[in-house]
Design goal:
Length: 251
């Protein structure tokens, strides 16, 4: 049996057979005098097993384990792992479809932008912030930062903390004032007294739950992301952020 006949018998490509030879998954028979490889029934059976196992979701390495004579993992163990992984994928797919359905409903009311693809709790928080603090550059940066945090799920705590407080007119007014003062620092010098005053007021306004566990030894200017964030600010604003972090970390 030639390589093309072997591949046809099992329903794979000759390229796949040659790849299995290269990685040692399928033993390569010696070439005959005419230069051709000749395959037997055992090769057909092994190749068929490889195809069945990979169709079940096993990687080629896992298929090799199963087919090993004495050292391989039990097929039942690997299949159980695959089943568990498929179950997790089903949950994730269901969650994604629910989010897509929500975005499609919102798209019916008007155009979406890139940050609308965040999770529902974060999207609700961003909407409330847009309504509560229109025109503030500081609020805009915070919305962008929350959208970024959403990729790791870290924004969930923030969304939970602020979901209700942004309905409180007094809290909204105090926060809007902090944003206004921060925006004004864009034209101030680093040694302006408002830098220290704003840092103190801002640090006190943030719920303690959001700053517990921060690294007191972290140097913001040495951290790649924090340093990039500070460079995007005016000098006085960046200094205010450093001082806020110093207050939170007890320095």
């Amino acid at each position: 049996m030639r390589i093309g006949e072997l591949a046809e018998a099992v329903g794979v490509s000759t390229r796949a057979v040659r790849h299995y030879h290269r990685i040692g998954l399928l033993p390569e028979p010696p070439r005959r005098i005419n230069g051709y490889r000749t395959y037997g029934v055992r090769d057909v059976l092994r190749l068929a097993r490889v195809r069945r196992l990979t169709e079940l979701g096993l990687s080629l390495d896992e298929a090799a384990d199963v087919l090993a004579d004495d050292e391989g993992r039990e097929l039942g163990e690997i299949l159980a792992e695959i089943d568990a992984d498929l179950a997790r994928q089903e949950v994730e797919i269901r969650r994604r479809r629910e989010r897509l359905a929500e975005l499609l409903r919102r798209a019916a009311d008007g155009p979406l932008d890139a940050d609308d693809a965040v999770s529902v709790p974060t999207a609700e928080l961003l909407d409330r912030m847009t309504t509560a603090f229109p025109g503030s550059d500081a609020a805009r940066r915070d919305r962008e930062f929350l959208a970024l945090l959403d990729t790791s799920g870290a924004a969930a705590l923030v969304a939970e903390q602020y979901r209700e407080v942004l309905h409180d007119p007094e809290v909204v007014a105090r926060t809007a004032e902090l944003y206004r003062r921060f925006d004004e620092l864009a034209t101030r010098s680093v040694d302006d007294p408002d830098v220290t005053e704003l840092a103190r007021d801002f640090a006190a306004a943030v719920p303690a739950e959001l700053v517990t566990g921060i690294d007191p030894g972290l140097d913001l200017d040495a951290h790649p992301f924090a340093a990039a964030f500070l460079r995007d600010l005016a000098p006085a604003q960046a200094e205010a952020v450093r001082r806020v972090y110093g207050i939170w970390s007890g320095r």
